[in-house]
Design goal:
Blueprint (H helix, E strand, L loop, with lengths): L3 H10 L24 E5 L2 E4 L4 E4 L14 H11 L10 H11 L7 E5 L2 H16 L3 E6 L11 E2 L9 E2 L6 H4 L2 E5 L3 H10 L4 E6 L13 H14 L2 E5 L11 H6 L5 E5 L9 E5 L1 H4 L18 H14 L4 H17 L7 E5 L2 E5 L17 H13 L2 E2 L8 E2 L6 H14 L1
Parallel strand pairs: 3-15, 5-8, 5-9, 9-10, 10-11
Antiparallel strand pairs: 1-2, 2-3, 4-12, 6-7, 11-12, 13-14, 14-16
Helix pairs in contact: 2-10, 3-10, 6-7, 11-13
């Protein structure tokens, strides 16, 4: 495969950016080789700087549920930009997108727009602390919630632990407010509440953990978290930055019919533009400034271009059978790839999210159950797939996404390529 231009661009990028990239996974460190510089995308396909064409299952890490350069989204953005790109003041588009979300989601009453998923989660944590008057939070190993200080913490060796920072530059004092336990372990959660009685402001979880493999949890476990939070006056936060509007319009909350106290969203609500939001009932949200004492602000929050893109995209998602059709496509791919089964080759999926894992296990529900050595097989697989025109996220821990733009021809070609490469 000719990647001369990508190689030259990467060498130049190293002069400007740490590691030559503006987000670590883009550096291809997990799979080796030179990262591809993408020039354009249309529908389910992307083209790199050397003109190589790929069927794209990364979809910009999930937000492009309609595919690249969707005409409805482009037309809405074009119309909005011609009236200005940012005002730092309210616009009617904020109202329109908020109404579209809230009126079709029985789990929330009010929202606050921000500019990223990280910002949404950071703000939700602050809100939980402000509402409860408590400082400690409980998170799970294997769930990623953005790069804010309180959440860059990984588990230690104990059942219940304050853990260790997973990044330089995070003070120990931040780590000491974050309790980390394993997923799918009721005993650890119960022990945490026993040790830190009346100190835990919130439990935060990806109800569909999809940042470190696809670690599908049982509904019964998520209900257990709901119940223990209610019992202890602790708020339950669902981080639905990935799962929200992806497996259904009401996300994991709707899929499992479990109501968290706060939900964070991102990705899809921006139609490909930077955006996020956090949402809850009126009683909790009235604690946010200027109505309450929990401060949060942002010049680009509710940016009109992102709002218009989100309105266009979510309007498409509300059409009859949108999610049913998307899941049908995903299952066609998953079943086709599963039929090629070789040693240690499994696919896990929910809705339009799928994960390729090299394991014999029928279920993987915690980070500890992932065999790190198996990632070598993904590295072996990755570049031959690129050579034959299949683009996945460049890490074996990353999930894949189906979009409305993917066709039966795309899926059949993908299965054909996998068969050759495996």
């Amino acid at each position: 495969m000719n990647n001369k231009n990508s190689t030259q661009l990467f060498e130049k990028a190293k002069n400007f950016f740490p590691g030559g990239v503006n987000s670590p996974v883009r550096a291809f460190r997990s799979v080796g080789g030179t990262p591809l510089f993408i020039d354009k995308g249309k529908g389910s396909h992307i083209w790199d700087a050397d003109g190589n064409e790929y069927i794209d299952y990364c979809c910009s890490w999930g937000p492009l549920i309609l595919g690249h350069a969707n005409e409805n989204v482009l037309n809405a953005v074009d119309k909005t930009m011609r009236n200005g790109t940012s005002f730092g003041a309210p616009t009617r588009l904020e109202n329109e997108l908020a109404e579209l979300i809230v009126s079709n989601n029985p789990f929330i009453e009010k929202i606050r727009f921000v500019s990223s998923g990280t910002e949404a989660v950071m703000s939700a944590i602050r809100l939980a602390r402000g509402f409860t008057g408590r400082n400690k939070i409980l998170k799970f190993e294997g769930c990623y919630h953005g790069h804010s200080d309180s959440l860059l913490v990984k588990a230690g060796s104990g059942l219940v632990t304050f853990g260790n920072t997973s990044s330089a530059g995070v003070p120990e004092s931040f780590v000491n407010e974050t309790i980390v336990v394993s997923l799918n372990n009721k005993k650890a959660v119960e022990e945490a509440f026993s040790q830190f009685n009346n100190q835990i402001a919130c439990i935060i979880i990806e109800p569909i953990p999809a940042n470190n493999g696809l670690l599908l949890q049982d509904k019964e476990y998520l209900q257990f978290l709901r119940d223990i939070c209610t019992k202890n006056g602790t708020l339950l936060i669902f981080d639905e930055v990935i799962s929200g509007f992806r497996i259904g319009f009401t996300g994991a909350a709707g899929h499992y019919n479990i109501k968290p106290d706060i939900i964070t969203y991102g990705k899809i609500i921006g139609g490909g533009f930077p955006v996020g939001c956090y949402a809850s009932g009126k009683e909790i949200m009235k604690n946010i400034s200027p109505e309450g004492g929990v401060y949060q602000a942002g010049t680009l929050s509710g940016n009109p271009v992102a709002m218009s893109a989100g309105i266009a995209q979510l309007s498409e998602c509300l059409k009859p059978n949108f999610y049913k059709n998307l899941e049908t496509k995903t299952q066609k791919l998953v079943k086709g790839l599963s039929a090629l089964r070789t040693t240690n080759f499994q696919l896990f999926s929910i809705g339009s999210i799928f994960w390729i894992a090299f394991t014999e296990q029928e279920k993987i529900q915690s980070a500890e159950e992932i065999d790190g050595d198996s990632m070598k097989y993904f590295r072996d697989l990755y570049h031959p797939l690129l050579e034959k025109g299949i683009y996945l996220g460049p890490s074996g821990y990353e999930v894949g996404f189906m979009s409305e733009a993917h066709t039966d021809v795309d899926i059949e070609q993908t299965i054909k390529v996998f068969k050759e490469v495996l």
